[in-house]
Amino acid sequence: MSTRARPGNSELRAQSSKLEASPALRLRRDVVRSIRAGHPWIYAEALVPPPELLPPGAVVEVVDFAGRFLARGLWDPGSAIAIRVFTLDPDEVLDEALVRSRFLAAAERRAPILAGGGTDSCRLVHGEADRLPGVVCDRYAAVAVLRFDGDAAASLRPWVAAVAASLPGIGTVVERPFARCREEGQARVLHGTRPSTPIVIRENGLSFEVDVLQGHKTGLYLDQRDNRALVRSLAAGRRTLDLFSYVGGFTVAAAAGGAGPSLSIDISKPALAAARRNLALNDFAFEDRELLVADVFDWLESPASRRRTWDLIVLDPPSLAPNRAAVRRAVGAYRRLNAAALRLAAPRATILTCSCSSHVDEPLFRRTVLAAATDARRRVEVVESRGASPDHPVVGWFPEGNYLKALLLRAGGASNPGGGRARRSDLPLRR
Ligand SMILES: C[S@@+](CC[C@H](N)C(=O)[O-])C[C@H]1O[C@@H](n2cnc3c(N)ncnc32)[C@H](O)[C@@H]1O
């Protein structure tokens, strides 16, 4: 059974499809089934024996115990995920043509989002779900922003940058360091001229500033686009509280839907300065639209938070469970956070509560939110369970991709007004 050694990055540029042979890697018996089912990650400990030193980005073939071909992928010695699988077809070559055709097919699937002119920005390639494991490409108007999760995916940089640059309307291709290593590097321009940031993009007819070089993620939380549209449709006349607002995406959407007074809170001063500019960009007046730089956990515990109630609340915290070990603690934090927010909900209020922790799945998040409602002594109905916008697809072979949960709640009255013992969520928000 043959395996192929990858060319280095510079070689990738020169040679696109001629790859040399190297020894095959054998997979532990208990992992074979999940790889055959299409899961694209092989952990180092699943290989027997552990492979010899291979360079990052080496194209490797994996075989089962009988030596039969299982998969072909890219090697990453620096990651717990040692191999990102690209194909289960022994005849499919992992070369520039394959990367290009998968990229273009993914971009084509997003064409309906960009058709019509109201939206010029979305995710074009969503890694594993688009069968380009570890590769992300977001489009912000004329700028394509790439992110590579690990050295294996990064070895595809020249091919991915070339296809991104070839898309109609794209003038600049930027690479952002992957989130986990943000501090290790700056954004760099791979094609075109360095954009003078922020640039202005359009989402459902609204304008937003985006800092493609330094903003969170690749600039904007594109995954919340459809949820912002939902909030817009629900906002008319409603007093709106946008917690963890970032650059005011939900705040601006609510304003566009005719919201009443609003309060937006984020810990980041630059984010709220951008929120102010985003309101101005869309000609929304500032009176009755308060922007507060504060720690939401502290604010919810402060007497100031109890002075008002709200008809529409958006709760979109950062990921609270960066790994499996943190899930228990994160669930406690979600519970206290949601209970505190629900105490501020007016009768018949609508709440959109979100979790972007991939380790907290939907059933667990739902149970946690409902427990929080009990703690807050509020009757709550789950109206809808939502996820990320469809340019961040969730596929059966990669359940880890289902990271964003958004529950739309309708609050009733008090379930036990003033009564009951102290609940778990009566504890300080930070424990
Ligand atoms: C998931 S993002 C929110 C995205 C936003 N809703 C949108 O649609 O663009 C989480 C935000 O929480 C903010 N944040 C993190 N910790 C915070 C804290 N303790 N208090 C307030 N904001 C916080 C971050 O600055 C970030 O803007």
Explain the overall architecture:
The chain is α/β, with parallel strands linked by helices and about 425 residues long. The chain folds into 3 domains: about 5-85, PUA domain (Archaeosine Trna-guanine Transglycosylase, Chain: A, domain 4), CATH 2.30.130; about 95-200, Transcription Regulator spoIIAA (2-Layer Sandwich); about 220-425, Rossmann fold, CATH 3.40.50. Helices cover about 25% and strands about 25% of the residues. It has helices at about 10-15, 30-35, 95-110, 110-115, 150-155, 155-165, 225-235, 250-255, 270-280, 295-300, 325-340, 360-375; strands at about 5, 20, 25, 40-45, 60-65, 70-75, 80-85, 120-125, 135-140, 145-150, 170-175, 190, 200-205, 205-210, 240-245, 260-265, 290-295, 310-315, 345-355, 380-385, 405-415. The strands form 5 sheets. It has a 7-stranded mixed sheet, sandwiched between helices. It has a 5-stranded mixed sheet with strand order 3-5-6-7-4. Strands 8-9-10-11-12 form a 5-stranded mixed sheet. Helix 3 (about 95-110) crosses helix 6, helix 7 (about 225-235) packs parallel to helix 8 and helix 11 (about 325-340) crosses helix 12 (about 360-375). The longest helix is centred in the last third of the chain and has 16 residues, at about 325-340. It is globular. The relative contact order is 0.09. Bound molecules: S-adenosylmethionine (SAM).
- What best-fitting shape do the alpha-carbon axes yield? globular
| Beta-strand content estimate | 25-35%
Provide the CATH superfamily of the largest domain.
Vaccinia Virus protein VP39
Radius of gyration: 23 Å
